[in-house]
């Protein structure tokens, strides 16, 4: 059951691994919905702490460090700044964006672990874990890859299958291998500290079952894990990189990343509260505080099962009121993949489409993967910008402002007597703030955005049907009333669009010269702009996106796909071994092409005349798709001279031109580095 009338909100967004830049999948998954939610709460006057940062202790960090030949610390230092800047550029309004490498986080995590240890909440066990004999180290769960026993995914990790979402232990994988060396690991004995989730299941089950209002995808996953039965999970790992286990007999061991990472929400709140002169405990230990975790679906088990179990064991913290996890966003018919560069990177987007942060925010919110996977395509991006943002939202505001400049000297005109239509529009306007707000409060961001656009459509329809540009010629007072109403709708749009389109909201407020900071409590009013109020300078809120801009982005993805295909192509296997005598039978020579033409009724063959030093010969070659006849006349080639003649398409071919084939299928002529005499042999 959700907490009613909370006094404050603690809103967290998943800690992203600091091992690379961020893409649209990250933004759509949890950071944009969290920002929309938080901006709405702030606009309604709520006390909110919006917390996030980078996770800097995961195995992906050490994997990245090995790939780049640098230290893990250098990796996280490199990407923390990039990630923070990208979020800032897109208006993600964190109260703090910190990092788990900070001292306050190490201290908080170790204190948390120590308390559970002293309370006897851990089971100390010696277990057999995978060890890489080649690399000489124990393997963390994410260093082990194998086949998922549930769905057959051949790339499941040692802690979870990202295809079916099943939580796993490394020993459950079929045919496991090490990501470090590729070798099959062996099992060795090692001691670790386990959280007994099996004994805690009744409490966890009661907690989950008290939140039937959770999204179906979240609640359903939780029920699936509970039905399978929870198992103890190690909260320590045999690794060098991470937060040291604060026990005397734990050399070479660090805290499990999913033990320390969620504690990051707490340590970062401490850091923020200290900077702001606030009491951090109110945001984590007060029963009147509502805690909400925004995450992607791959982190549901950690935020709905493991972290709550940790907090229950510690005993002094509130539990999450909601965990509105999103599914995944795909890209142009395929899963987003950082390793394959099949992604739209935020920093590149801003370089190539400057000033269009809100367009991307809009499209991602409109296609948000709220209960199932969704898809981003560049054509849809273009259509939503041109047909919705430009043609509806932008068109309405622009007409209202431009007509006011033209007919009213850029001042809000006097509103006269209202028609029944005017009153109906005002009545509808008053309903929109609640419609939009209630949908946001229920984490239905697509629905809320739909209501926002309906308000813009209301304004567009009102202007289209009242036609003030015509009315002004016969009834200027009526035209003034129409424009006053259109401007009041525009002012309301500046308030209710802010959670979704913060940059647009700021531009719109500037155009309307709104110096007073109106918030959600003011939305729905029809007197936000007083009569005689001077407007600011008008400018287009959105610009049409042309086909060439979109085609560039599509081509960029196709280029990435092409490069991936090239990288996955393998060198052909060697053919059966031959003797020197077999090779010596081939008479390979150099010649010059003197004539070349296409063979009628064939799209593959070229008919070539080759000067072989012996009077010349005719050779047919299947290279018509790779070379234009006129381009190869005069080129020296290598040919097999003693191949038995054969008829092709009615012409006799007296040899074979030898070619080299690139891995993308492109053919190249094999010619000597320097010109040699025609008929020269190759040996």
Automatic annotation (TrEMBL):
Residues bound to ATP are 338
The record's listing under CDD domains reads: Anticodon_Ia_Met, MetRS_core, tRNA_bind_EcMetRS_like
What GO biological process terms does the UniProt entry carry, in alphabetical order? methionyl-tRNA aminoacylation
Location(s), subcellular: Cytoplasm
Q: Which SUPFAM superfamilies match?
A: Anticodon-binding domain of a subclass of class I aminoacyl-tRNA synthetases (SSF47323), Methionyl-tRNA synthetase (MetRS), Zn-domain (SSF57770), Nucleic acid-binding proteins (SSF50249), Nucleotidylyl transferase (SSF52374)
TRNA-binding domain ranges (all copies):
582-683
Subcellular location, principal: cytoplasm
- What binding details are noted for the cofactor? Binds 1 zinc ion per subunit.
| Known catalytic reactions | tRNA(Met) + L-methionine + ATP = L-methionyl-tRNA(Met) + AMP + diphosphate
- Return the GO cellular component terms, semicolon-separated: cytosol
Give its E.C. classification number. 6.1.1.10
User: Which terms in the Gene Ontology molecular function aspect does this entry carry?
Assistant: ATP binding; metal ion binding; methionine-tRNA ligase activity; tRNA binding
Instruction: State if Protein biosynthesis is listed as a keyword.
Output: yes
Recite the UniProt keywords alphabetically: Aminoacyl-tRNA synthetase, ATP-binding, Cytoplasm, Ligase, Metal-binding, Nucleotide-binding, Protein biosynthesis, RNA-binding, tRNA-binding, Zinc
Location of motif 'KMSKS' region in this chain is 335-339
Q: Which residues bind Zn(2+)?
A: 148, 151, 161, 164
Q: Which Gene3D superfamilies match?
A: HUPs, Isoleucyl-tRNA Synthetase, Domain 1, Methionyl-tRNA synthetase, Zn-domain, Nucleic acid-binding proteins
Assembly information from the UniProt record:
Homodimer.
What does this protein's UniProt record list under function?
Is required not only for elongation of protein synthesis but also for the initiation of all mRNA translation through initiator tRNA(fMet) aminoacylation.
Q: What is this protein called?
A: Methionine--tRNA ligase
| Gene name linked to the record | metG
């Amino acid at each position: 059951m959700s907490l009613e009338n909370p006094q404050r909100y603690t809103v967290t967004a998943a800690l992203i691994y600091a091992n690379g830049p961020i893409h649209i999948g990250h933004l759509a998954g949890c950071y944009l919905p969290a920002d929309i939610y938080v901006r709405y709460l702030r606009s309604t006057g709520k006390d909110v702490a919006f917390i996030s940062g980078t996770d800097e202790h995961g195995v992906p960090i050490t994997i990245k460090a090995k790939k780049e030949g640098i230290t893990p610390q250098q990796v996280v230092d490199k990407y923390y700044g990039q990630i923070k800047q990208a979020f800032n550029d897109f208006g993600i309004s964190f109260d703090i964006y910190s990092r788990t490498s900070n001292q306050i986080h190490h201290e908080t995590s170790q204190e948390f672990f120590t308390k559970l240890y002293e309370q006897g909440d851990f089971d100390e066990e010696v277990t057999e874990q995978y060890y890489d004999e080649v690399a000489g180290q124990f393997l963390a769960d994410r260093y082990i890859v194998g086949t998922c026993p549930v769905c057959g995914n051949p790339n499941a990790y040692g802690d979870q299958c990202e295809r079916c979402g099943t939580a796993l232990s490394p020993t459950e994988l079929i045919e496991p291998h090490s990501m470090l060396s590729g070798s099959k690991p062996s099992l060795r004995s090692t001691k670790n500290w386990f959280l007994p989730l099996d004994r805690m299941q009744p409490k966890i089950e009661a907690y989950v079952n008290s939140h039937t209002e959770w999204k179906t995808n979240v609640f359903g996953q939780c029920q699936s894990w509970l039905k399978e039965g929870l198992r103890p999970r190690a909260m320590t790992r045999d690794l060098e990189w991470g937060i040291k286990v604060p026990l005397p007999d734990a050399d070479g061991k660090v805290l499990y990343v999913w033990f320390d990472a969620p504690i990051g929400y707490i340590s970062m709140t401490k850091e923020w509260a200290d900077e702001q002169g606030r009491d951090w405990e109110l945001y984590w230990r007060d029963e009147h505080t509502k805690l909400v975790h925004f995450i992607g679906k791959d982190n549901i088990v950690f935020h709905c099962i493991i972290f709550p179990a940790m907090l229950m064991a510690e005993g002094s913290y509130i539990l999450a009121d909601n965990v509105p996890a999103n599914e995944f966003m795909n890209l142009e018919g395929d899963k987003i993949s950082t390793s394959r560069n099949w992604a739209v990177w935020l920093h590149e987007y801003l370089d190539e489409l400057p000033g269009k942060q809100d367009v991307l925010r809009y499209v991602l919110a409109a296609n948000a993967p709220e209960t199932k996977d969704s898809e981003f395509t560049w054509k849809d991006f273009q259509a939503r910008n041109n047909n919705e943002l430009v043609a509806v939202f932008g068109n309405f505001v622009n007409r209202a402002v431009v007509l006011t400049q033209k007919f009213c000297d850029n001042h809000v005109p006097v509103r006269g007597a209202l028609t029944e239509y005017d009153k109906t529009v005002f009545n509808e306007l008053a309903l929109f703030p609640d419609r939009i707000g209630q949908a946001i409060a229920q984490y239905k961001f697509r629905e809320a955005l739909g209501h926002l656009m309906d308000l813009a459509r209301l304004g567009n329809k009102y202007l289209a049907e009242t036609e003030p540009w015509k009315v002004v010629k016969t009834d200027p007072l009526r035209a003034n009333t129409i424009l006053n109403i259109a401007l009041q709708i525009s002012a309301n749009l500046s308030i209710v669009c802010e959670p979704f389109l913060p940059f647009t909201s700021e531009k719109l407020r500037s155009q309307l010269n709104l110096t007073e900071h109106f918030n959600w409590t003011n939305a729905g009013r029809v007197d936000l702009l007083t009569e005689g109020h001077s407007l600011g300078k008008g400018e287009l809120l959105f610009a049409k996106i042309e086909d060439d801009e979109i085609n560039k982005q599509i081509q960029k993805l196709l280029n990435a796909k092409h490069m991936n295909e090239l990288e996955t192509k393998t060198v052909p296997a060697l053919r059966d071994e031959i003797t020197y005598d077999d090779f010596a039978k081939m008479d390979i020579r150099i010649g010059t092409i003197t004539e070349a033409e296409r063979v009628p009724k064939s799209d593959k063959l070229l008919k070539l005349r080759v000067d072989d030093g012996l009077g010349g010969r005719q050779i047919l070659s299947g290279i018509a798709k790779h070379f234009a006849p006129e381009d190869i006349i005069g080129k020296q080639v290598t040919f097999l001279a003693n191949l038995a003649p054969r008829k092709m398409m009615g012409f006799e071919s007296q040899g074979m031109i030898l070619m080299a084939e690139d891995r993308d299928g492109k053919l190249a002529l094999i010619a000597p580095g320097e010109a040699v005499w025609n008929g020269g042999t190759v040996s």
